[in-house]
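Let us practice reading a record.
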Amino acid sequence: PAASSSARVERRPTARAVTPADLAAYRPLLAPGGLLCGDDYGWPGVNRAVRARLGRVRQPTGKLWAWRDR
């Protein structure tokens, strides 16, 4: 498939938190310089997964997070 310039990682509130494996599955889909983002940053499971797989991320507002593939 063609690479995408952006992707949003989303889970239903009743589902388990985003995991490092979820984030690993999205990364290969991004074009160089692509943006990966999501919400619920502040939930312990989301924070752990994002930090473990992506390292430092931007928090543009509230519970949103964003990471750019460089």
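A brief commentary: The longest strand covers residues 30-38.
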